[in-house]
């Protein structure tokens, strides 16, 4: 991969560094030898640092391109199912019919969780945020799958992937049912992955829930569009946690914690809250003004992205799906009107144009989820279900490539060495 050299000169010292050429994207300077010369690089937030080598997902933020194993997200969203995308992310190739059928059967047959887990829920307050419950319960799964699990064994890692992929919708739906005081609904094997999730969310023991195919497809699409996004905060968290050889269920719980923040997966919930706050089209200019004001911490939620400096390709599909769902349900959501006008105004405003702030995937997903009857505090939980496959694929790739514990260095700006003198009275 190294087809070029870079020379770094620091005072009298000069260091030769390899320049690595990826299949796609920017060249990468290999700085691994710098530490031995007594220098580190400084890059808070990792804006210029490739933390690993990966073959899973490629993003070209300037041109709005997202590829999973080489396949464009637009094609995957319109021509595949979420489980097909999961297979592609995990194994690198599109499945044959037989491979797909086997994969689907295996995932479907692992959806139940240990009955003991249901008791764990009682320890949570009913009004807990479902992300707190999801994080806790996913971490607790480590207690059920630990002793016999050898993370260096590819077969064990494969089984872990099935378990996580299958059980996450079950746990997520249980978080919802617990929060509203309804009994848990067990998975149904004759339903699709998305259909089963909707069933576990909305069926009750008193009434059958008939899955609407348009809504099922919309749910599946939301899962596809959130499946992976290379080395984002939560995926990097999963890799960092896993780099010590930690239990994968605990690593995924760490990823869930990272995803929860409003700058990451929490943005869809925050975006819907913002649209509700804006309420009507007339109030938009006031919010745009606030977003541009340096002295106001308010940001337009669902706008901007660390990597995309162009329209997020996932937002395009999400926008279409949003219209499909509202049409199917015959809903005339005023929030959609606010969203579309907000998008129009922001895309024509010099502030947003100069800073390359475009709508991201979360801008429309909240409206779809709301139309599906999903409460806003569950939005990030749904993101977590979808992203689980990305987390596992990266965790797996990291193990395949050979573990190296993540251990960044720092630019220390604290005290120099000084004498300690205690002022505390000792008994
Ligand atoms: N509204 C108003 N101004 C913004 C916004 C926004 N949504 N996003 C960025 N800016 C401005 C910043 O104030 C900053 O201005 P300055 O250069 O004058 O200081 C400039 O644009 C760059 O912003 P940064 O925060 O440095 O950009 P970064 O790449 O670190 O942040 C982020 C990306 C966190 C996504 C940011 O755009 C944001 O907070 N957006 C809103 C939250 C959101 O929608 N998050 C979802 C991300 S997608 C996902 O996780 C699935």
From TrEMBL:
<keyword id="KW-0816">Tricarboxylic acid cycle</keyword>
<dbReference type="InterPro" id="IPR016142">
    <property type="entry name" value="Citrate_synth-like_lrg_a-sub"/>
</dbReference>
<feature type="active site">
    <location>
        <position position="362"/>
    </location>
</feature>
<comment type="pathway">
    <text>Carbohydrate metabolism; tricarboxylic acid cycle; isocitrate from oxaloacetate: step 1/2.</text>
</comment>
<dbReference type="InterPro" id="IPR019810">
    <property type="entry name" value="Citrate_synthase_AS"/>
</dbReference>
<dbReference type="Pfam" id="PF00285">
    <property type="entry name" value="Citrate_synt"/>
</dbReference>
<keyword id="KW-0808">Transferase</keyword>
<dbReference type="InterPro" id="IPR024176">
    <property type="entry name" value="Citrate_synthase_bac-typ"/>
</dbReference>
<feature type="active site">
    <location>
        <position position="305"/>
    </location>
</feature>
<protein>
    <recommendedName>
        <fullName>Citrate synthase</fullName>
    </recommendedName>
</protein>
<dbReference type="InterPro" id="IPR002020">
    <property type="entry name" value="Citrate_synthase"/>
</dbReference>
<dbReference type="GO" id="GO:0005737">
    <property type="term" value="C:cytoplasm"/>
</dbReference>
<dbReference type="InterPro" id="IPR010953">
    <property type="entry name" value="Citrate_synthase_typ-I"/>
</dbReference>
<keyword id="KW-0012">Acyltransferase</keyword>
<dbReference type="InterPro" id="IPR016143">
    <property type="entry name" value="Citrate_synth-like_sm_a-sub"/>
</dbReference>
<dbReference type="InterPro" id="IPR036969">
    <property type="entry name" value="Citrate_synthase_sf"/>
</dbReference>
<dbReference type="GO" id="GO:0006099">
    <property type="term" value="P:tricarboxylic acid cycle"/>
</dbReference>
<comment type="similarity">
    <text>Belongs to the citrate synthase family.</text>
</comment>
<dbReference type="GO" id="GO:0036440">
    <property type="term" value="F:citrate synthase activity"/>
</dbReference>
């Amino acid at each position: 991969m190294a087809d070029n050299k870079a020379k770094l000169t620091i005072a009298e010292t000069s260091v030769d560094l390899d320049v690595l050429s990826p299949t796609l994207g920017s060249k990468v300077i290999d700085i691994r030898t710098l530490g031995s010369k007594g220098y580190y690089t400084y890059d808070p937030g990792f804006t210029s640092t490739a933390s690993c080598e990966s073959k899973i997902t490629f993003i070209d933020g300037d041109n709005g391109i997202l590829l999973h194993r080489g396949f464009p997200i637009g094609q995957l969203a319109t021509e595949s199912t979420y489980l097909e995308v999961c297979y592609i992310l995990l194994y690198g190739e599109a499945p044959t019919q037989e491979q797909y059928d086997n994969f689907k059967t295996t995932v479907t047959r692992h959806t139940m969780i240990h009955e003991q887990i249901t008791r764990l829920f009682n320890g949570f307050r009913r009004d807990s945020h479902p992300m707190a419950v999801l994080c806790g319960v996913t971490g607790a799964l480590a207690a059920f799958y630990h002793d016999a699990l050898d993370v260096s064994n590819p077969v064990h890692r494969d089984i872990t992937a099935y378990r996580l992929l299958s059980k996450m919708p079950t746990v997520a739906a249980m978080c919802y049912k617990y929060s509203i005081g309804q009994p848990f609904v067990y998975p149904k094997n004759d339903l699709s992955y998305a259909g089963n999730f909707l069933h576990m969310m909305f069926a009750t023991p008193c009434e059958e829930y008939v899955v609407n195919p348009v809504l099922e497809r919309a749910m599946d699409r939301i899962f596809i569009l959130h499946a992976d996004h290379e080395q984002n905060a939560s995926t990097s968290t999963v890799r960092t946690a896993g780099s010590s050889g930690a239990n994968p269920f605990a690593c995924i719980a760490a990823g869930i914690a990272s995803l929860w923040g409003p700058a990451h997966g929490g943005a869809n919930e925050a975006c819907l809250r913002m649209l509700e706050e804006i309420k009507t089209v007339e109030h938009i200019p006031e919010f745009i003004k606030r977003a541009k004001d340096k002295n106001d911490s308010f940001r337009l939620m669902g706008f901007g992205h660390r990597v995309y400096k162009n329209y997020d390709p996932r937002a395009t599909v999400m926008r279409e799906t949003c219209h499909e769902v509202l049409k199917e349900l015959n809903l005339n959501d005023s929030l959609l009107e606010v969203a579309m006008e907000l998008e129009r105004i922001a895309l024509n405003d010099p502030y947003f144009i100069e800073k390359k702030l475009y709508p991201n995937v979360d801008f429309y997903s909240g409206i779809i989820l709301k139309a599906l009857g999903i409460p806003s505090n569950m939005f990030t939980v749904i993101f977590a279900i979808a992203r689980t496959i990305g987390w596992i694929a990266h965790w797996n790739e990291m193990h395949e490539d050979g573990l190296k514990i993540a251990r960044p260095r720092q630019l220390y700006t604290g005290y120099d060495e000084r004498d300690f003198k205690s002022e505390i009275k000792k008994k």
